[in-house]
Design brief:
Radius of gyration: 18 Å
Strand content: 5-15%
CATH architecture: Alpha-Beta Barrel
Number of domains: 1
Structural class: alpha/beta
Number of helices: 10
Helix content: 25-40%
CATH class: Alpha Beta
Number of strands: 8
Shape: globular
Distance between the termini: 12 Å
CATH topology: TIM Barrel
CATH superfamily: Divalent-metal-dependent TIM barrel enzymes
Order of helices and strands: EHEHEHEHEHEHHEHEHH
């Protein structure tokens, strides 16, 4: 079975963010991920990781003005300098946290229906990714791009696996990979098993949540047991991020690991 990482932006909301590292370790996780920890000094977060024997496997680059509805800057024309500054900040945190992956969000694109505008956004994204990949390579960091469903984030530029992999191929950098969130992929297009078979070699990280409610992965329409078995069959050695909203408290919700894997210690493997 895959190795599971706790997403601290979604799990353990019963405690303050900096206390979620301890909560994750106590629950048996050996790795964590989160979106944005930039309100805290990088060295403080690194100390929490060390204190609890945790590996940081993913962070997000700064998303722009989140409160104003921005969800990344990668594909936004005329925001290149802000995007580059955000990548530089993310790399500084990745260095401090020994984190090998950064998710760079494409962004919500106004005027989504105009083909000419979309083409400009795409070329902006490709240029930004090429420049960011060169910077990230010097830090030993992979950049992730992630298709996100338009129901959760209306107007998000990147929504399908095929588009993400086409952009990855156009960028042409070995350290640009696709982050496949099976929750988003199921909502947009389904056919998860075949997409994993086709593209697993270019997938740098996987995330999970139940569909449609984004709760525990054993609630909803996706057979994660079968998908975990497929990942084993295909030889996936990466992490699977638990990016879901618990229906109730986090700890009681973690019983899905016992039910789906039939062995609770699997979530403790590093």
């Amino acid at each position: 079975m895959p190795r599971f990482a706790a997403n601290l932006s979604f799990l353990f909301h019963e405690v303050a963010f900096v206390d979620r590292f301890a909560a994750a370790a106590e629950a048996g996780f050996r790795a964590v991920e989160f979106a944005f920890g930039y309100d805290f000094p990088a060295q403080e977060l690194a100390a929490r990781l060390r204190a609890h024997g945790l590996e940081q496997v993913l962070i997000n680059a700064p998303p722009g003005d989140w409160n104003a509805g921005e969800r990344g800057l990668g594909a936004l024309p005329d925001r290149e300098r802000e995007f580059a500054a955000g990548v530089a900040t993310a790399l500084r945190y990745a260095d401090a946290l020994s984190c090998p992956r950064i998710h760079v969000m494409a962004g919500v694109v106004p005027g989504d229906g105009d083909p000419g505008w979309r083409a400009r956004c795409r070329s902006t994204f490709v240029r930004n990714l090429r420049a960011a990949a060169r910077e990230a390579a010097g830090h030993g960091v992979d950049l992730m791009i992630e298709p996100i469903n338009g129901r959760d984030v209306p107007g998000y530029f990147l929504t399908t696996q095929a588009d993400a992999h086409a952009i990855r191929e156009e960028v042409g950098a070995a350290n640009v990979k696709v982050q496949m969130d099976l929750y988003h992929a199921q909502i947009v297009e389904g056919d998860l098993s075949e997409k994993l078979r086709r593209w697993l070699g270019a997938i740098g990280h996987i995330q999970i949540a139940g569909v449609p409610g984004r709760h525990e992965p054993d609630v909803g329409e996706v057979n994660y047991y079968a998908l975990f078995a497929l990942l084993d069959e295909l030889g996936y050695r990466g992490w699977v991020g638990c990016e879901y909203r618990p229906l109730h408290d986090t700890l009681s919700g973690l019983r899905w690991m016992d039910r789906l894997t039939a062995s609770a210690p699997l979530r403790t493997t590093g």
